[in-house]
Design brief:
Layout lengths: L8 E8 L5 H11 L20 H6 L6 E7 L2 E7 L7 H10 L2 E7 L6 H12 L4 E6 L8 H12 L3 E3 L1 E3 L8 E4 L4 E4 L8 E3 L3 H19 L3 H10 L4 H14 L3 E5 L8 H10 L10 E2 L5 E2 L8 E10 L3 E10 L1 E3 L3 E4 L4 E4 L4 E4 L2 E4 L2 E3 L3 E5 L9 E3 L17 E7 L5 H14 L4 E5 L4 E6 L2 H13 L5 E4 L6 E3 L4 E9 L6 E11 L9 E4 L2 E4 L4 E6 L5 E6 L11 H12 L8 E2 L2 E9 L7 H18 L3 E14 L3 H9 L4 E8 L2 E9 H4 L2 H9 L4 E11 L2 H17 L1
Parallel strand pairs: 1-3, 1-4, 4-5, 5-11, 6-11, 28-35, 34-36
Antiparallel strand pairs: 2-3, 7-8, 8-9, 9-10, 12-13, 14-15, 14-23, 15-22, 16-21, 17-18, 17-23, 19-20, 24-26, 24-27, 25-26, 28-37, 29-30, 30-36, 31-32, 33-34, 37-39, 37-40, 38-39
Helix pairs in contact: 6-7, 6-8, 12-13
The protein binds guanosine-5'-diphosphate and magnesium ion (MG).
């Protein structure tokens, strides 16, 4: 096995909507690259990339899988990614370490919601994209429509390199306007016959050729001058220009494929070898200190782990990209995230389930290692002299949550350890041991994502678990002014306890004026603010506390105790025991006793006065509201809208994009916890959504009644 220099390494990620043909294309590329001599199929569960048992059980990709081929003196690492929204975490990891993305579009469907979601991710990470229109052999393939939609979405970045002469069942001819030749495949695909462009196509081919030449020239002043001078560019000059356009993300070249019939695959690989940027031509990695680290195999060695999985016979496998220098088998390295020593005892190249041992890997290459003690996804490992730490990969907000527990209570601690490990392997799964809800909540990208987690715990860790409905973190607040006086008095033996507090509480909102006079039960109570304290509550919202005592009826030194008493009570609202928020308290009168008053007395007086006032201040339950964006194919818009209406959604707006609609809404968490599942079944998996916490809002009164009933029943049970 050769060791490749950075300039000969190209890291390619295959992305695209579910079922666009990524896994089929990977398989064809492996065959063309001479890695395998027979292609596996999705149907027979025999592909190189989908090899995890869980993937066979489900019939689609769950994990990204790294494959490679040595071809024409280059090492092509390509990563096949899952297409389903549920497993976007792995796609994002893969995009992070890739130099170029191949965006597969299914010619049956054109631009899909997945195309949009993934192009946004590629944009965020500034990755060059090649568009590959696949499934052109399908009877419903529509190349023209697909290109139109792509151009509508991605504008003039979309530049044709190839177009099909015949589309559909008898697809076997493609015209390449970079090389200005036509390819014709036999039934079995593979290497095509290269023929002259026929007369009837020459005009169209020339026109597209010129567009491509212009697009290539635009990226470089010298090329532009040459183009003006000569009226055209040579093939090599075009390649140079296209490469620059790719890196700047100004040019997305379009290729034609039938991955299934292995048509167009070879030419696409050739383009990757000849044109796409090698790893050292891409922007350098950035450290957490904003330092730029170029891919230089002579520099100090450092690597970044982008994927950690548990494999049946190997244990934990870490996939990494060499960020700098050369990594050798047997190297001692330091994990800067955990500050622990590790040893690279074995170094592998990965091709799906097959691993090839290698002795070293140079900057930019992708490899794997096992048996690290304390290193996981997102960690940086440094060899001698290196002190880098690379920025962690950012994963999207979770959008499916459930409570989890071990079937057997005695296994709770073990479950917590397993969950911790799984989060480290897949940071798009979040774990929260909620004190407030008294539940362990796991959240992820969708029900499938969480079911895979269950599958892994039950099959790999042999621990039976139960997923059950998660509670909602409700809040409580008040809606009107109320007043309470409370005297705490206790006489037992020697010294007694005495504290009396008079307070007014009212709803707090931003920018409200300072209090001067309160109208309570028909009386005016004038207050004079002596001190104001604003407490940012850890669970959101505020408590504002005023000391308005006059004439020293309560000593200043007792005020903190009163506030403490209030804080104790604010953690358990009277309605449902939830945290309270957004309340203003004014302590304006009271009494103390020269001997018996102490902090305890005032704490208790404050607590009770607050509790009483709270109950009289028309308390209301608040619920978390999420900002939701749904991307949905046009033909399913009606269904999705009417479904949202049953979820108490507030629709904020709709926008038509090419091929799908974008819908914005505010939806209560209670109604959207399992939305990913419903949306998927409403649209046959063709829609996607994201959600982000927005704010707390009062629940409608029927919902409040229902919640009160449930809480009462629970309290009686306990
Ligand atoms: N007709 C046709 N079917 C294809 C082509 N590529 C993939 N498929 C089929 O489409 C389905 C999804 O392909 P797969 O590679 O699993 O898509 P992925 O989800 O993007 O990995 C499978 O049934 C493939 O056999 C193609 O070029 N032509
Ligand atoms: Mg796949």
């Amino acid at each position: 096995m050769n060791v490749y220099e950075s300039k000969n390494i190209k890291n390619i990620v295959l992305i695209g909507n579910a079922s666009s043909g990524k896994t089929t294309l990977s398989e064809a590329m492996l065959m063309e690259g001479g890695v395998i001599n027979r292609r596996g199929t999705i149907e027979n569960k025999s592909t190189s990339s989908d090899y995890h048992p869980v993937e066979h059980d489900y019939g689609y990709s769950v994990f990204p899988s790294v494959l490679f081929a040595e071809w024409k003196g280059k090492k092509l690492n390509f990563i096949d990614t899952p297409g389903s929204d549920d497993f976007i975490g792995g796609v994002i990891s893969a995009l992070n370490v890739a130099d170029t993305g191949i965006m597969l579009i299914n010619a049956k469907h054109g631009v899909e919601v997945g195309t949009e979601i993934l192009s946004r991710q590629a944009e965020k990470l500034k990755k060059p994209l090649i568009f590959a229109i696949n499934q052109l052999d399908h009877e419903n393939a529509n190349y023209e429509q697909t290109i139109e939609q792509a151009q509508a979405r991605f504008k003039n970045k979309i530049v044709t390199v190839q177009y099909p002469v015949n589309c559909g069942n008898n697809f076997n001819e493609v015209i390449d306007v970079l090389k200005m030749e036509m390819y014709r495949w036999k039934e079995e695909g593979g290497a095509p016959e290269i023929i002259q462009i026929p007369k009837e196509e020459i005009e169209k081919a020339n026109e597209l050729h010129n567009t491509l030449v212009e697009a290539a020239a635009e990226n470089d002043e010298q090329l532009m001058e040459l183009y003006f001078d000569k009226g055209t560019l040579t093939e090599d000059q075009m390649r140079e220009g296209i490469k620059k356009g790719l890196i700047k993300r100004d040019l997305y070249p379009v290729f034609c494929l039938s991955a299934e019939k292995n048509m167009g695959v070879r030419r696409l690989m050739e383009f990757i070898v000849n044109v796409t940027p090698s790893v050292d031509e891409m922007p350098p990695s950035i450290t957490t200190e904003a330092e730029e680290i170029p891919y230089d195999s002579e520099a100090k060695p450092s690597l970044f782990i982008f994927n950690t999985t548990l494999e049946p016979h190997l244990g934990e496998v870490n996939l990494f990209k060499v960020a700098s220098g050369t990594i050798n088998e047997g190297d001692d390295i330091i994990n800067v995230n955990t500050n622990t020593k590790e040893r690279i005892s074995q170094l592998y190249l990965i091709a799906g389930k097959n691993k090839t041992k290698v002795s070293s890997l140079k900057a930019g290459d992708i490899g794997a290692t096992v048996k690290l003690k304390n290193s996981k996804n997102n960690h940086t490992l440094n060899g001698k002299g290196a002190t880098h730490q690379f920025s962690a990969i950012e994963y999207p907000e979770a959008k499916f949550r459930t409570a989890i527990r071990a079937e057997n209570e005695a296994d709770e601690e073990r479950l917590a350890e397993i969950l911790h490990r799984i989060h480290e392997e897949d940071p798009s799964i979040k774990i929260e041991h909620s004190k407030e809800l008294k539940q362990t909540i796991v959240s992820g990208q969708g029900e499938f994502h969480i079911n895979t987690l269950k599958w892994r715990i039950e099959n790999n860790d042999k621990l039976n678990i139960e997923l059950y409905p998660p509670k909602i973190p409700y809040r409580e607040t008040i809606t009107k002014i109320a007043k309470a006086d409370y005297r705490h008095k206790k006489q037992s033996g020697g010294s007694g306890q005495f504290g009396e507090v008079h307070m007014i509480i009212e709803p707090y909102f931003e920018d409200m004026p300072e209090p001067t006079v309160y109208k309570v039960n028909g009386h005016d109570i004038k207050v004079n603010v002596r001190k104001k304290e604003e407490v940012e509550l850890p669970w959101g919202g505020k408590l504002v506390f005023y000391n308005c005592i006059v004439g020293g009826v309560i000593d200043n030194r007792f005020m903190p105790a009163i506030l403490k008493g209030i804080m104790e009570k604010i953690e358990e609202g009277p309605l449902t025991g939830s945290y309270a928020r957004d309340i203003r308290v004014c302590v304006y009168d009271g009494k103390m006793h020269a001997v018996d008053s102490n902090e305890i007395s005032f704490k208790l007086a404050g607590r009770h006065a607050f509790s009483e006032a709270f109950k009289n201040a028309a308390p209301k339950i608040l619920e978390p509201i999420y900002d939701v964006e749904v991307l949905v194919p046009e033909d399913r818009m009606g269904d999705v809208m009417s479904d949202l209406q049953t979820r108490r959604a507030l629709i904020l707006g709709m926008e038509a994009e090419k091929g799908f609609q974008k819908l914005k809404a505010k939806v209560p968490l209670k109604e959207i916890q399992k939305y990913s599942t419903s949306l998927s079944s409403l649209t046959g998996g063709r829609a996607s959504f994201s959600m982000k916490f927005g704010e707390y809002e009062r629940v409608p009164s029927d919902v409040q009644q229902e919640l009160l009933k449930t809480y009462e029943a629970e309290e009686n049970d306990n």
